[in-house]
Design goal:
The complex is a heterodimer of chains A (about 900) and B (about 100).
Chain A: H1 4-31, H2 40-47, H3 53-66, H4 72-82, H5 88-97, H6 103-110, H7 115-150, H8 158-177, H9 188-217, H10 220-229, H11 239-255, H12 257-265, H13 272-289, H14 291-301, H15 311-318, H16 322-364, H17 374-400, H18 406-417, H19 421-429, H20 435-457, H21 465-470, H22 491-513, H23 518-528, H24 545-558, H25 560-573, H26 585-599, H27 601-612, H28 619-694, H29 700-732, E1 740-743, H30 744-756, E2 764-767, E3 775-778, H31 780-797, E4 804-812, E5 815-822, H32 853-863, E6 867-870, E7 878-884, H33 887-891
Parallel strand pairs in A: 2-4
Antiparallel strand pairs in A: 1-3, 4-5, 5-7, 6-7
Helix pairs in contact in A: 1-9, 2-9, 2-13, 3-14, 3-16, 4-11, 4-13, 6-7, 7-8, 7-16, 7-17, 7-18, 7-20, 8-16, 8-17, 9-13, 9-14, 9-16, 10-14, 11-18, 11-22, 12-16, 14-15, 15-16, 16-17, 17-24, 18-20, 20-22, 24-25, 26-27, 28-29, 29-32, 30-31, 31-32
Chain B: H1 21-45, H2 62-91
Helix pairs in contact in B: 1-2
The chains are: A mainly alpha (about 900), B mainly alpha (about 100).
Chain lengths: ~900, ~100
Amino acid sequence: MASLNVLVLVCLGYVALLFLVAFAADRLAATGRSTWLRSPLVYTLSLSIYCTAWTFYGAVGYAARSGLEFVTIYVGPTLVMIGWWWGLRKLVRVGRSQRVTSIADLISSRYGKSNTLAICVTILAVISVTPYIALQLQSITLSFSIFAEADPNNSYNEIASVFWVAAGLAVFAILFGTRNLDANERHHGVVTAVAIEAVVKLVALLAVGIFVVWGVAGGVGQTMARIDASEIGQWNIDRGRWATITFLAAAAFVCLPRMFQVMVVENDDERHLRTAAWAFPLYLLLMSLFVVPIAVVGLDLMPEGANPDLFVLTVPLSQGQQGLAMLSFLGGFSSATSMVIVAAMALSTMVSNHIVMPIWLSSRGTGASVSGDVRSIVLLSRRVSIAAIMALGYFYYRLSGGGAALAAIGLIAFAGIAQILPALVGGLFWRGATRTGALAGLTVGFVLWLYTLLLPGIGGEAMPANVMASGPFGLSWLRPQALFGIDGLDPMVHSVMWSLSLNAAAFCVVSLFGFPSPIERLQAAQFVNVFEHSAGPRGWVGSVAQSEDLMIMSQRILGAREAQVFFHAEAQRQGARGYLPEPTPKFLERLERELAGSVGAATAHAMIGQIVGGSSVSVEDLLAVADESAQLLEYSSRLEAKSDELGRTAHQLREANEKLTQISLQKDNFLSQVSHELRTPMTSIRAFSEILRDTEGLEPEEQTRYATIIHDEALRLTRLLDDLLDLSVLENGQVNLNMGEGLLTEVLDRAVSTAMTGASRDMRILRHVSDERIPVHSDLDRLTQVFINLIANARKYCDANTPELSIRVHEVGGKVVVDMVDNGSGIPRDSRKLVFEKFARVSAERAGGAGLGLAICREIMQRLGGDITYLNGHQGAAFRVSFPSGYQLAAQ
Amino acid sequence: MSAEPDNDPSQVPHPPVFLERQGYRRRRLMDAARVLPLIGAGLFAVPLLWPGVGETEAPYSLSSAIIYIFGVWAGLIILAAVFGYGARRLGRSSDVPGPEPR
């Protein structure tokens, strides 16, 4: 039997070997000759830290208890990997383009670099991963105890061994995980060591499996027969658990901090995913291939009450296979150590970047540029975090007593970490997801998980028995394992169902009703559309004076040489001669990403903000400025509209003024014309009446002649005054229309006969009586007056040898149109505009009337709702009279 | 408004609507690869339908369940590998990272 001392020696030797490998790998990577280190194979193997000691030892125990249910733990990740095109590809791309350092950093970065959110995720991760680390301690301790039992000089102390295991793992993790500061840089050493451990555990499990199947059971066929004959030989699964755990494993595979570390942060090349998509499921398949045979054979061989979690170790031991047992022990040891190292690394990065550094920075208060060597502070905080996390795991193990079945704790941790899933998936695929939504979802999910699963699950008196039985304060619908009275579900299914569904619901509802800050919206666009633009807008603006401060700060975080190289390269990129580049937004953005690799996105953002702060324009500021200028723009456009309006009003006023001036002029003209028109007959009346009065002995004929002239002139005056009165009445709108009905032909008949009476010369009137039989509703007397005027004008002014007047009537769209065209020479072009003005006479020599006729006609037609216009395009004078046929007018 | 020719949206090159045969094959292969996890989830859900202990007189034996589950598993792995290599071989000449092709 191998003594405990030999075992310890083997462990130390193994660890020393890993050290050497890691060291060599780091050296190789530094010299750039490490092409195989970056191969997809190493990436795939590093993913195998998914398989911890829980899966190495616990899977067999799980199978011994619940049959095939254990495969769900592997099936979930298999589906995620095979479906890499859906989600992992995007996750890795985002992780690389944003230089995220952990899952908390990713969530914080997506939701506007919110440190609150990062702290929440970190706390959630620490709480759910701590039991998991305790689990690893437990498995190593248990496996030690197996060998200790067989050791004749038994000096094994369980408590002491747990302590030393924890301490050893902490040292291991500190030495491996904090060798370099930039968490975003590839830890080639760690990854290579993890890959080797992956091979060791696979080989160990396969070796035990092959030994059991061919060495103990005697071949595949007999193994199958044994399986069917065993107590778990019949198909018996809890369907709810089968589906739930598959889903849970898939979710945890993406959300677990250590998986995120190797899958996203340590990813060298996106194309590795393509290989890992089939190679990692293959690894999982091989890891679980022999689980059931080992469990069945263990159940057969081992005495009643043996811990099935340790069959991998005890079965070879019971068969006297010391070497195989040792290999198997190393496999379990590898599983535990690799998981603990990577988990501690990932968690310590989160704790130091999101909790320690912000507190430290704000406690200094003076800003990043004047503080001490940030580099050593970050490293120190990371190391302390690792130690603290391991201590937490150790105390958790001590408190829980290490008695619970391994698998139960593992699943509880899965359910806790899966609470990140809604925020993660929502952040990657939904631009509307907001910070408050993510916070709400995480809080709801975390509290429910704590209440329904973790506290009842860790044993002891964490959850008082009376609360378990009848709910808090006697509220039975709040019983931790039967929320809302839904009883009888498996506690795991119950908890996952409620916590994840309410988590997602809170996340969605709060996101829907919230409004994200500008920086959140920018980040959302960058994350969701990562394939369209892998780099995006940031909002730093700095001045030259700050370059030096930035340099000083960067030296403290990145290291003096690295920072100088980076700044020099930037300066050269900008085409400057010196070592200090201009703090252009692009440079600041690159610097922020560079720093983010060391201290996380939120802290890097805050640090640059502190330095560039004074004159910086943050994205919020920029957007606020944009907002303000949008307001200015709106204001000025409103001003413009107003000034346009003013301009229009002024124009209208000018027009009105012009019109008034014109009207005043017209009035003056009118008055002078009226007085002129009145004076001419008055003069002749006065002259002839004076002759009649003063001249003695006038002949009676002469007397009669003079009296006739006086009479004619008086008649003319009366007519003029009548017309003027008529016009002024019409113009003032005081006219009373005497509406009546009749046929248009009758109106025209009357007008023609009146106009042609006493005509000195004959004029032919051409009419189409059939067209004129249109009933009209109008003031027929006024209409007749208009027609009389037009016909009389034609008779007076038509200069043709055989004057003709053609009257054409037609009806267009409810309007009656009467055209009167004569065959004379018409009205000269430039007089046409004036014919409707008062006292306008076309030819002075034939002045018969006062020149008011057409003006009156126009007024009448406008009163009747129609118009009278001069028709161009005819040889003779042509007038068009149009008016409504009258039935609409009658209704008014 | 500036009217520089390089800002003219009509001048921005659009990705071609139709692809040559090789690109077409590659995208259909990607389509198949996308459906694969859904098929896998469906196949892994089939055991939920099997009658268990106490539900029927002859419940499924564990060995046949193992054969089914590991068979499906291996099948998925092989298909994923075939799709991965197929896409890589077809895409070698035109492996352009960028907007997702349709």
